[in-house]
Structure formats: structure tokens, C-alpha cells
Amino acid sequence: MEARRETYDLILRNGRVIDPANGLDEFADVAIRGGKIARIEAGIAPGSADKEADVKGGYVIPGIVDIHAHIYPLLPMAPECLGSIDADAHMVKVGVTTAVDAGSVGWRDFLNFKERVIDKAQTRVLAFLNIACKGMIDMRSEQSPADMQPKVAAEVARAYPELIVGIKAAHYWPGPKPFDAEHPPWASVDRAVEAAELSGTRAMIDFQPNHPDSPYKDLVLKHMRAGDIHTHVFARHFPTVDADGKVYDYMRRARENGVLFDVGHGAGSFWFRNGVRAIRDGFPPDTISTDMHTASVRGPALSMLHVMSKFLNMGMPLYEVIERSTVLPALKIGRDDLGTLSVGACADVAVIRKLEGDFGYVDNGYAKLSGTCMLDCLMTVRGGKPIYDGYGLTMPEWTDAPQAYWDMPAHLR
Q1: N or C end of the chain: which has fewer CB within 10 A?
Q2: How far is Cα 136 from Cα 385, in angstroms, rounded to an integer?
Q3: What residues form DSSP beta bridges with 356?
Q4: Closest-CA residue to 149 (of 97, 187, 204)
């Protein structure tokens, strides 16, 4: 008797599968069923899926994880603050299936954020909770130690462990007067780390090294724990690389201690003059992220794939670029169920390709890097369903398409 043939919801055929979580880099088909990865194997029988897409020439990778973005719609656009983007509008089309909001909201507004954004988005949205109760909705709150309540922040984080991945400290600086007893130099950092400790998570630190009592070296060596993340690592204002292009020893000691370094590109926090030299000296970032908001989405960050393309042209191998944009950020936020194509894992998948040509990339310091390639997204699959198919990989040619809308297959309507 002939064995019963397995059937699937979707098969992505003939792509090069790169899944650093499993050490996979090979040509294979990826079969999806019930919203999960069902099989990865070359030559899966034709006609065994409801939908199939020939992705020859493309790379099939885990859904991209951007661990630094701003996606709370009530974040105002004003001179002293940054406006948020819509994750579904800007992330899905570049292969991002998980976006982590980095401190747009504090504990005061988290429930509103959950109901208005997290519960409704196609993109999986997670969050670093701002240690300041008002977060970035009122950036004056980030200057007020009285608004930084570690026990309350930790309590909210513990209440939503599936959504809140850590605590964020940001935008804390002397302001019109120097630090004093009511405005101590490490208040934001230390209280964020305390809240992270109490909640069993990690802290993400956006630091302002502009006071003699709070040097950057002390941040990474004395105030951050193993697993805590310093974002904007290659910004102009951080002393990470010396005049000879060598990474400072304290950076390597901090990494040995378990401190993590994230890109957080943004509209003002990434310089090739630091990043290229650090990579050449053997100090790549642990994670690649965008710091996407209404300013950086217009440039020079533009998108997660654009930032990944920069690192590819800076000399980082494609496998590592993918690794630092999928499995590593997932693991660093405690979500080992993401950033992987393991059989049985949620079928979050990106299909990308590498375009060859002459490309120019710019940083936040008005400098350019000339490159020879750019990454482009062909398809994004979230939970087993294609939510972006900009090149029509699952669609018929127009000559073969039904004449009437109602005659189209359900997944195309």
C-alpha cells in the first residue's frame, strides 16, 4: 500500500536556507503547516501544499527580530521627542516579524500600549518598559528620578512576562543644572538595572556620557550586569575605539563580563568611523537593530534590512549578519522560541535576496560608505501566513488570474 503523502499549507521551494540557530546553510524546501515549521528538506514532493512559492535565488531565513524600535502611536513628534512608526507599515515589508519597542512607554501607559498596538498588530510586538513612568510620551519624566520606581516597574514587567522583555533607561542628562542630590548621575541606569533584577529580566541602556561623574567606562564595567544591553554602541559620543582604530580594552572586558552591545542605529547614533574600525578590530555588535522612529525611518537607518546591508558592506559575512538579526537578539531578550526555523517552531520566515551593484550608504555623521550589495525582501511569513508578498511569489501571472475578484483563491483576496 502506498504511504500517505504529507500535506502542507505552504512550501517555500528552491531557496538557500540560512538558520544560524541550527547551524543550517543549505539549499532546501521549507514546508509549513498549522502555523509552524513542519519540514526542511530538499525535493519535497510537488503538489503537497495549498500554496507554493519558488524562491530560487533567495535566502530563506528566520523572521527578523528588531530589538530597538519605537512603535507607540501616541508618542508625539515634537522638538524634544521622537514620533513612533507603525510596525505593520514599516517592519513587515523588510522581513521583520518581531519588533521590540525600546522604552516608548513606562508602567503608566503600558496597558494602553498593549490594547492599542500589541494586541492588534500583525507584527509580534514586545517591549522594554521605560524606567520612567511616563516614558518618552513626556521626556521630562526621563529626567525625574522621582518618576523612576523600580519596584512598580518590576511589578508590571512580572505581570506581562510574555510581552515585556526588560527595562529601558534613556535620555537622562544634567539639563540646565549639574547633577545634585536630587538628580544623581546614575539614577536612571541604576534604577533600570534594579527593576530588571527584580523582574528577572535585563536592562537596555541608552546612555548620555556627558558628565565627569558618569564616564562611559564605568557604565559598562561597574553599573551593567551580564545580560544587560548597551544600545547605540557605535554612536559618535561613545569612546569605544581609540585614535588608532583599536577597541578600548574596557569594551572587551565588559563583553567578557557578559555585557551586550547593540547597534540601535537611529537618526543620530551610528558612525562608520566607529563601527567599521571596531569590526576590523574583531569587535562586532552582539545585535543589529534600527532604533526606528519617524526621523530615522526617513534616513539614514531606513529599515532593518538597510542597516543589515550596511554591516554586510562593512565586511561582516552574510551568515553573521543574519545571526545578529535573528537568533542572537531573540536569545538576548529571553525568547528562544523566536529567530529560528526549527521544526515545530512558529513559522516566522523572511525570504530575502542580495542585489549586486553600486550602492551608497550614509551614517549619522554625514559620511558615506560605498558598497557593492543590498538586501531586499521578497516575502514575509508570520505564523505560517504570507503577510507580505511584494513580488507576487504566491500569485499567478495576470494572464492566468481569475477575471472576477470573487473567483480568486481566498489567500489572494
Answers
A1: N
A2: 33
A3: 373
A4: 187
Burial class (CB in 10 A: 0-12, 13-18, 19+), 403: exposed
Predicted TM-score (pTM) of the model is: 0.94
CB 361 within 8 A of CB 371: yes
Highest mean pLDDT pick, 79-93, 304-318, 396-410:
304-318
The secondary structure of 178-195 as a DSSP string is: ---TTS-TTHHHHHHHHH
**pLDDT at residue number 79:** 47
Select the more confidently predicted residue: 164 or 408.
164
Between the CA of residue 258 and those of 78, 104, 203, 226, 387, what are the distances in Å?
36, 26, 13, 4, 36
Q: Which three cell numbers stand for residue 373?
A: 550589495
Instruction: Look at residue 122 and tell me whether its pLDDT is greater than 60.
Output: yes
DSSP-derived pairing of the beta strands 24-33 and 64-69:
unpaired
> CA 178 to CA 174: how far, in whole Å?
5
What is the residue whose three cell numbers read 512576562? 161
Alpha carbons 354 and 145: distance in angstroms, whole number: 47
Residue with cell 557593492: 372
> Using alpha carbons only, what angle is made at residue 27 by residues 320 and 339, rounded to the nearest 5 degrees?
40
Specify the CATH number of the domain 63-332. 3.20.20.140
**What is the per-residue pLDDT across 368-379, written as a single tens digit (0 to 9) for each?**
999 999 999 999
59-94: b (≥16 Cβ within 10 Å) or e: bbbbbbbbbbbbbbeebeeeeebbbbbebbebbbeb
175 dihedral zone (left: phi>0; alpha: psi -120 to 50; beta): left
